[in-house]
Specification:
The protein is α/β, with parallel strands linked by helices. It has a domain of 163 residues: Rossmann fold (3-Layer(aba) Sandwich). Helix content is 32%, strand content 27%.
């Protein structure tokens, strides 16, 4: 399988603190890559570098067989942390703002509303949306440019069990549509059900990367890595 995204010794320092250290990860094309790690492990920082929000201190990112460049953002969609919504606008109006900024056809608005299950929201303003609907709208915004790579950072935060299942089913459809997904989470069961590949970050280092194997005990593997790293710190 072709690799869509590869990082080589990716490192990020904030003043004297090393947040990410020499991460080399490989994300196959048309797959769901589950990036696991405890809170504060460095998942969001890693994804922000891939999404162009943060600049790496050193190391490189290879996207679609070439060194990452700013123009690649036209092929990358991201929902990292809080969805960037205008609370006084409807779902359609929020999307319209982005199509104007990105110079994308308005026809794409109906497509992403359908994909994200928001076609029936009408004149309801985003500020009145439930947490699940806000997450869906954030994903719809990330999908507007029909990206090759979709980055979702803890997308089920604040969702109820029904919302989590609906989002899980939605994400599983994306590789069939020619889209690669990086999904970060600290919830093992969530990632285990939909990921094709697993990466585990702990203390800013990629400690594990392999195809997801239903026969493996992911929880035992995860806990072993976390506990081992904590002993090393002590």
């Amino acid at each position: 399988m072709e690799t869509l995204l590869r990082t080589e010794n990716l490192t990020k320092k904030f003043k004297n603190q090393v947040a990410i250290q020499n991460i080399s990860m490989n994300v196959p094309e048309n797959s769901v890559y589950g990036l696991l790690g405890p809170n504060g492990a460095g998942k969001s920082t890693t994804l922000k570098m891939i999404a162009g929000i943060l600049k790496p201190t050193r190391g490189s990112i290879i996207f679609n067989k070439h060194p990452w460049k700013r123009s690649d953002l036209s092929n990358i969609g991201a929902l990292i942390e809080t969805p960037p919504l205008y609370g006084n606008l409807t779902a359609r109006e929020n999307l319209k703002v982005r199509t104007e900024l990105l110079n994308i056809s308005d026809g794409r608005i109906d497509e992403v509303l359908e994909i994200s299950g928001l076609t029936g929201t009408g004149k309801k303003r985003a500020g009145q949306f439930s947490m699940g609907m806000k997450q869906r709208l954030g994903i719809a915004i990330a999908l507007l440019n029909n990206p090759k790579l979709l980055i979702l950072d803890e997308p089920t935060n604040g969702l109820d069990p029904v919302g989590i299942e609906e989002l899980r089913n939605l994400i599983r459809q994306f590789p069939k549509q020619g889209m690669t997904v990086i999904l970060s989470s600290h919830i093992l069961s969530e990632v285990e059900q939909i990921a094709d590949y697993i990466g585990i970050i702990c203390n800013g280092k990629l400690e594990y990367e392999a195809p997801e194997n239903k026969e493996d005990n992911l929880e035992a593997l995860f806990m072993d890595i976390v506990k081992r790293n904590r002993r090393e710190i002590i």
